[in-house]
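User: two proteins, same treatment. go.

Assistant:
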Amino acid sequence: MDAERMARLDALLDRQDIADCIVRFARGMDRFDRALFLSAFHSDATIAAGPFVGGAEALYDWATGLHEAGQEATHHNLLNQTIEIDGAQAHVETYYLFVGRNRDATNWVAGGRYLDRLEKRAGHWKIALRTNIIEWSGVVPTLPLPFADWPGITANGVSRRDGSDPSYQRPLVNNRPAHVPE
């Protein structure tokens, strides 16, 4: 393989590792998976998110407390992303859409961008600095979850904010019988 192609493959692998890092943050927050969340940050990272400014461990404690008190479920949806790599440093902009199903029967929706500086240390890309730009927010009414009263709908599991969430099941299996609605 020629050197140019090898360099492109190395850059592609770095981009994928960076994108995976950002996903670990989001999934770790939504599933209340502390280890997964912290794996996205260097231990000396600084994060500025809303009124919070500090390290990753303190952010996790503050944010999960906020989400647990206010919401039954949260989704940190990651959208458009630009990644600029310069050696062992990368600057990443990730658009996001946050949705929280609130305990007061409303849904909170917000959009913005994560601006991250990642550093590759000991072969691993992690966030060294994050700032959160919140660009809009709103509340929308809650509707009943679709098919919530259908018999057996929860046989494959229900949303949980811990390791019992169906997304952690390995191997993933289907526990529902075949059924085609009329």
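Protein 2:
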Amino acid sequence: MMLSQLHNIITRRRAPSLHQKIFAHSKQVTPYLSGSFGALHSKSIAITNDDSHKEIKRVYDGLAQNHPEAGKAYWLTRTWDLVCWQPIYVTFISIYGLHSLPDIKNIGQFRYKEFVTGYRFFNGDHQHGSPEELIPQAGEAILALTEFYRSQISEWTRIRPGFTNHLLADLLLSSLIKLQQHEPSLTNDYITEQAKLWLAACQLSESHLDSLKVDANSGMLKLIRVSCCLVYKCESGKYCDDCPRHPDNKKAAK
């Protein structure tokens, strides 16, 4: 379903119904983004659970066991991306698809082996509005959530705010690139203006806008990340298309 169609969906006041719409659209993006509604159990990765660090550490340990050749920097980077991807995706789906924002700050997530998949809300709170109205509130929730994740990881290893800020900026911008790819009618200027709003809302430097480039073939925006996920260090890994280490992107950056 195209975003232009999603924008026309009339949201209902009854929270469970709106959650069901978010869950349905999430699974259209990827089956790994499976939502549910109800109480969070003790093993949930959630801001309401101070033992979240144990589950996040199990993600890290699983990566270390399955990819010993990749090293600690990869294990940590991948762990961070895994705990952040679902809240960001759900936020973008809700804001741009349904013009609503659920209680992202209190989202619960689940670990499956060394992966984080599946999310849950335990309350029906929703805010409604345009992306411009909702982004500041979403940014506040994302900042609280990511700072919580960082504090939980700090229980067992060093993780610098500068490191996580770069990763968060890249994740936000890559989500905007996916948004434009899904709805090509969204102009480069619109995506750039949205990027400014997201960076400001998450207290990130506007210098990250330099990561957005115009693709010579499509005329649409593309991202050359500031950070590297380091997946190329895995035995079967290679450079991602938006990796700053990719030879094509090194040329584009000059």
